[in-house]
Amino acid sequence: MMPRAKLKAQKVEAANALLDGRALPQGGAWITRARSDAEQRVRDMGLPTKRDEYWRYTDPRRLTSADVVAGALHDTQGEAPAFDAFDRVKLVFVDGVFDADASDPMALDGVEICQLSQAAMTDLHWARDIYGALEARGQSPVERPLASLNTAYATEGVLIRVTGKPAKPISLIYQRKSETSDAMVHHVIRVESGAEATILENGPFATRFNQVMEVDIADGGTLHHIRAQGRDHERAGSAHFFARLGAGSHLKSFTLTANGALIRNDSVIWLDGGEGSAHVAGATVGDGAFHHDDTVFITHGAPRCESRQVFKKVLRHGAVGVFQGKILVDQIAQLTDGYQISQSLLLDEDAQFLAKPELEIYADDVKCSHGSTSGEIDSNQLFYLRARGVPEDTAKTLLVLAFLAEALDEIADPAYAEDLRARLEAWFERRG
Amino acid sequence: MAVLDETQMREGVDRETVETVQSMAGTYKHGWETEIEMDFAPKGLNEDIVRLISEKNNEPEWLLEWRLDAYRRWLTMESPDWAMLNIPEIDYQEQYYYAKPKSMVEKPKSLDEVDPKLLETYAKLGIPLKEQMLLAGVEGAEEGRKVAVDAVFDSVSVGTTFKKELAEAGVIFCSISEAVQDHPELVKRYLGSVVPQNDNYFAALNSAVFSDGSFVYIPAGVKCPMELSTYFRINAENTGQFERTLIVAEKGSHVSYLEGCTAPKRDTNQLHAAVVEIVVLEDAEVKYSTVQNWFPGDENGKGGIYNFVTKRADCREDRAKVMWTQVETGSAITWKYPSCILRGDDTQGEFYSIAIANNWQQADTGTKMVHLGKNSRSRIVSKGISAGHAQNTYRGLVSMHPKAKDSRNYTQCDSLLIGDKCGAHTVPYIEVRNASSRVEHEATTSKVDDDQLFYCRQRGMDEEEAVALVVNGFCKEVLQELPMEFAMEAQALVAISLEGSVG
Amino acid sequence: MLEINNLHAELEEDSGVKILKGLSLTIKPGEVHAIMGPNGSGKSTLSYVLSGRDGYEVTEGSATLEGVDLLEMEPEERAAAGLFLAFQYPVEIPGVGNMTFLRTAVNAQRKARGEEELSAGEFLKVVRAKAKELQIDAEMLKRPVNVGFSGGEKKRNEILQMAMLEPKMCILDETDSGLDVDAMKLVSDGVNALRDAGRSFLVITHYQRLLNHIQPDVVHIMSEGRIIKTGGPELALEVEENGYADLMAEAQA
Lengths: 432, 503, 253
Description:
- The complex is a heterotrimer.
- Chain A has helices at residues 3-19, 29-45, 61-64, 116-119, 133-137, 145-153, 379-387, 392-408, 414-431; strands spanning 89-94, 97-98, 107-108, 111-115, 158-162, 170-175, 182-191, 196-202, 208-217, 222-228, 236-245, 250-258, 262-271, 277-287, 291-300, 306-316, 320-329, 337-346, 352-361, 367-375.
- Chain A is of the alpha/beta class.
- In chain A, the strands form two sheets. A ten-stranded mixed β-sheet of chain A has the order 2-1-6-8-10-12-14-16-18-20, with helices on one face. A ten-stranded mixed β-sheet of chain A has the order 3-4-5-7-9-11-13-15-17-19.
- In chain A, a hairpin with a 2-residue loop joins strand 3 and strand 4 (111-115).
- In chain A, helix 2 (29-45) packs antiparallel against helix 6 (145-153) and helix 8 runs antiparallel to helix 9.
- Chain B has a domain at 36-353 and 360-373 and 396-409.
- Chain B is globular, with a radius of gyration of 22 Å.
- Chain C has one domain: Rossmann fold (3-Layer(aba) Sandwich), CATH 3.40.50.300.
- Chain C has helices at 43-51, 75-80, 98-112, 120-133, 138-142, 151-165, 181-194, 209-213, 233-242, 245-252, and strands spanning 2-11, 18-27, 32-36, 56-65, 68-69, 83-86, 93-97, 144-145, 169-173, 200-205, 218-223, 226-231.
- In chain C, helix 6 runs parallel beside helix 7 (181-194).
- Chains A and B meet through strand 19 and strand 20 of A and strand 21, strand 22 and strand 23 of B.
- Strand 20 of chain A pairs antiparallel with strand 23 of chain B.
């Protein structure tokens, strides 16, 4: 067999080995169809390997293995979780399982919320048009079998329908209490026409997690998504964020990642209607055994849309940061404004930055640019601060925070940005 | 013109360019064929053909084994599928792998013995500059700068000019088949040392069947007294061209090498799979410039050359320097990534590229800068222009290995779109594995600026002239890196390649 | 020379936005006319419509240069016919040398008119002499078109192009904007040197001060896409003193 056919056969074989004998969860007609379609997708695609183009910088084995690598819990030394100070509707998952006792009631003006496990038992639900549908769409042009695996087997998650402009954010909190937990969570969010909401996510999730969030924003809708992925070192996970935007709708999605043995975040965004905007940003700090991968795919499928990708990574002691980002502009998407920046600051000789920032453009009247840089702290800036009497460590922290600020600035509400910035500052101070 | 200063010379060049463009009204200029009796090997590819090619070139046993090894590896390999190219299935058994003008069966002792029809062919081509006169040995052509030429017609070298003068400087410039006979120790030492036989599918194919190409050896401390040039021409139908070029620059030597290519117009596609290997030793400098103008196919996408080329320079020792400059305007499909292995400390690699794709052309081209040595430097400037239904991709790798401390890369990658049926894509790979190295990559994509076009037209230029002017401006950073004669040729080509793309 | 009759034009993009609403104007050979008017009165649109920039649709009326219909021509044909627009915001063209640009333009026009092209030597001689008058040094001629030029340098470069192309009808669109006093004098001297019995000018400006340097024969006041008042140089002084408000009110009454 020639090499490519052989590789494909191995991938399919691995998928079958993982899935054979594993029953799909019980559920109503709509979700059973979605799950069995997704299971078939996994079998057809096979499991990802490092030889796949979009896994060339990240080894997916820890995410696809039958067994979870056990990992110690992290002592946060009393640091309050992210967003603790904000008034919000709290929905708590412990090791990926919804904890009703720890959560607030699912009641908020302008929003309908229900658990996936409940909705799945009915035969009809508004989420049937979205659950697994955006994930399936996201399999082209790049295969994402981990997301299909999630669609097929996840039983936890919430379905959120935003019909107005709720006064408070909805906060999804992921606590980790087990050293061997293996979580699969699938959320669906529908933002109706003209509605606007903020979704917060925070916490270390589980020892291994596979998360999918599917977001459908109707014409004129707005969603703010702010995520802080906890601080546990010994865990691994994959999070897929699929979002479809209607005409004149807006999305802002920000992710803070600190620590973790292996974290892969995929964002797949489609600008389907004209005059929409999508901003995806991330700030990453990694120290030691840390491998973090942001893979972003924004498709401009309609005219006059704007997109921004802003990713900043600060790495040291062998930490590895990966950025793979694409702006794809369809032929119809004239007057596109696309921007992408990915930058890393390597604080010592062991850190690595691996990037593939892509443009794929089929329309001529566009303005698209991207930039990518990697380097160490600017010695002139450092000297300038020290010459003014700032101690070296303080000066470095100052410069690193300034470097990360461009990503944090993508958060619309400065109160959340400040909350995360303060956490970053504490992270650096603890390390000295 | 002699009294004018350098800037005025430039201006003069530009003027001539505009005139040349006007005189070249339309269509591919080198689309005729030469009727010469050819000696073909049978169609198809197998071990016997590989043996036959080796035998025809009277090669030593080790080279035959080397070729067979490559062929066997090739059989287990697959055509790469990662480029943004739609490559039709190629039937490798429907190609001729060896074609040689009959008059060349007995190698001519001097250029006087070269078939006049061959020389006529070069006269007709007319580019770059006065090569055909040099080829024909016209002494009067030497008044300007001297350029030594090795001309490769289909599979074989038909003659090299200025051999004697070069020999006095100790420079070896000959066809690779001659080098195998006359300098076997050099060929054996360096062949495949930069691009191994199994480097990739097309390099393996080339290693198995290459029939000729150029060989350059610059001894230590020698600054090559003239520019060296190879001129490639595919003439025979259904014939693949698989030339192999090997350049060795010894310690402290300098050389500038130019490469030009054309092919006749044909309805069928023709295959070109070349390999260029450059070995650069301590303090040596090699500048390699290409103007690639293979037949691109007609305006409906019929015919054209499939150009799958592996070019790589190995800056093997400290302070070695290499510079690639390419103007890619031809070929139906271009798959080409001239690369630099910056192995020594303080080495330098540069890549300047203009890639123009019009009508139904597809280009996937760029470079690799592999930094292994400390304090190594690289610079990439890529200008891509897409028009018609063409797809044009920049693909590049910048890799900073852990030991390549204090290295630098700067990449600027701009794309221009003309019309809404074409595509422009940028696929950089950036791998930084040490902190003291600095990598900067910038890319932009935009269309030809309407305000600029209107400004030119208000001053009286027609639309095509305005587009050519603006696009030449867009490419300036790269054009100015070319030797003067090539710069003129390239400017004219930019304009010709874009004909029919506006209005 | 230039005859504009009942010209109506609107934006192509936001259809229905009418900019010129029945503008009429006649400029005889050798005359200098000035058009003044408040922002948004349609002054720049007039210059773009006459020179043939995309984005405007002429819905009614006519414009002729020496009896030839301008509106049917491509921009380069209008240029070859002798129409020159000095841009309010001269366009930057990276990578294209100023000299290359000039010679390409000069020769394109000569060719269009069936004249012989200038040789490199002749061209250089002429351009050097004219550049010197405008205090444009060799360095500026080498640089790419308008790239990195100051406001004053850009405007001087426009006048240099005008001098080289020797048009019959010159439109100066807010040539005074962004100029200090010295630069304005230099530019005006350049323009005045080109005044000739066979050459006419249409000077579009917001302020009267340019007209101290370039003395007009006729002054028009433009408002809401039409000429609302025409007079001699004294009209410009009146505007300088009282503003446009009175004139506009008068026109509406």
